[in-house]
Amino acid sequence: MRNLADEFMRYIKIERDLSEHTQRNYISDLEQFIGYIRDRSIKGIGNLEIRGYLSHLHRVGLKKSSIARKLATIRTFFRFLHREGYIDKNPAKIVATPKQEKFLPHFLSVDDAFRLVEAANREETSSLRDRAILELFYSSGIRIGELVSLDREDINLSDGLIKVKGKGRKERIVPIGSKAIEAMKRYIEGTVHGSPRPRSAPQDPTEKRGGQFTVYDERFPLFLNRSWKRITERSVRRIVLKYSMESLKQTVKPHTLRHSFATHLLDAGADLRAIQELLGHKSLSTTQKYTHLGMDKLMEVYDKAHPRSKKAVNEK
Question: pTM for this structure?
Answer without folding.
Answer: 0.65
